[in-house]
């Protein structure tokens, strides 16, 4: 019985690792390969989660929709809407240098959070959207969890392959060139603003998909889920720790950080209640400490960016 | 081929380029000399579209390109190199060349997923061309090296190499010889002359190495304080008293 509980927990963690993996791959396209400092991951996550929720839930009183559409339509809609929102944001913000872009995107994510929190007609505000259909939700608990894991794992694998393809292709080479030297890339005929926008939208779409998978897993989405700590900064730590510029590193970073993040929660829950509440903060401290250590001793991450494009062993 | 009319570039109250007017003829290697701060590199930045002028006009092959973005000028065959090498330091030397050609099939997300055969064919052709360029520059042994690890002179060669990956018509070379050793320098001269004769590149060449200017350039333009001082063949410009005073730093008597 004990180990079945553990196994259940492992499956639950693995599902989260796959969802965060999508967020990390999205951020890797933006930061790792193009050098865009997006500190508003939570915003695109929220757009994706709510878009899919509204598209797939049955009709509800007091808010827009739901439209009762099939789940795949909701997920596609989540990506399209996250991309559509990224477009004007990128149009405006990508002109800024990296640190200003970070500030602007934090602001945008905060605006999205406030809209989600207060617009009754759209998101049912603080009560959130419930009754989100969950694929394989009718199966018994364990089977349902395993099936969902297989689904998100498959999606992560496909996304990973699709992203790797781009990075190995001339598109990726061009983006790495833009990251290395924007002025020279422009002089070599590359439309830098358009390409940066492209990477921003591509990454945002993956973040939206991650949000959708999260909402359907929980069958509900509320504004609390859009916490910059867990939806933005944790993803950053995962990417930096795993190795930005390396997609496998990004996913590894997700796994390492999420395991520490979850186990430290189990640990702090063992303490007497009056300490347990305070002990929660030790988790944030632990993650911060780990980031410090990585930046000090291995700034390129656990799996550093490989030298790509070496002739003779091209990974095309 | 290129006409610059009354070009002005102001930074605050300072005029880096001041009512500059000059032309470059097709097929020629025009030399651009002048003291530091004369506005030569600023002029290049204006012609290449890295910055927009305060006023004035730039015409290229009969078309007004004053407000055209740098990448669009590139696609019209107007290509520049940088005084301080701007290599893509984390890309390999081969990749530095391969990224250059415009409109590659594999620059489209869609094609990379759904038209892989076309992208692969395109890549083979680009790679073949890059190897050719490396052979011409005698850099094949460093093809897989990170460009950031090259020596200063090799980076200069790579700058030149990038222009060869294009269908360039007019190439702006900003001090190709600076920091390059004597042997490599002669090689560089040779390469520029070949590109001019065999590929029909028109060049504008900023250089402080007078030997190189003398060998390659006709006409020679001397700039000072943001504007053209004199234009003519090398000997005329060289012995002009204003040039001697402003740039070459010799008195008239010494030169004679």
From TrEMBL, chain A:
GO cellular component: a single term: plasma membrane
Main location: membrane
A GO MF term: branched-chain amino acid transmembrane transporter activity
Keyword rRNA-binding tagged: no
Taxonomic superkingdom: Bacteria
Localization: Cell membrane
Key words, A-Z: Cell membrane, Membrane, Transmembrane, Transmembrane helix
Membrane-crossing residue ranges in chain numbering: 6-29, 36-57, 69-87, 99-116, 146-163, 199-219, 225-242, 249-268
InterPro entries with a match to the protein in the record: ABC_transp_permease, LivM-like
Membrane-topology descriptor: Multi-pass membrane protein
PANTHER family: HIGH-AFFINITY BRANCHED-CHAIN AMINO ACID TRANSPORT PROTEIN BRAE, HIGH-AFFINITY BRANCHED-CHAIN AMINO ACID TRANSPORT SYSTEM PERMEASE
Name of the protein in question: Branched-chain amino acid ABC transporter permease
Annotated organism of origin: Stappia sediminis
Automatic annotation (TrEMBL), chain B:
PANTHER family to which the protein is assigned, alphabetical: CONSERVED COMPONENT OF ABC TRANSPORTER FOR NATURAL AMINO ACIDS, CONSERVED COMPONENT OF ABC TRANSPORTER FOR NATURAL AMINO ACIDS-RELATED
Domain ABC transporter: 2-250
UniProt KW Ribosomal protein keyword: no
GO cellular component term, pick one: plasma membrane
SUPFAM superfamilies cross-referenced by the UniProt entry: P-loop containing nucleoside triphosphate hydrolases
Record protein name field: ATP-binding cassette domain-containing protein
One matching Pfam family: ABC_tran
PROSITE patterns reported for this sequence: ABC_TRANSPORTER_1, ABC_TRANSPORTER_2
Molecular function as annotated in GO: ATP binding; ATP hydrolysis activity
Sequence similarity: Belongs to the ABC transporter superfamily.
Keywords, in A-Z order: ATP-binding, Nucleotide-binding, Transport
Keyword Kinase: no
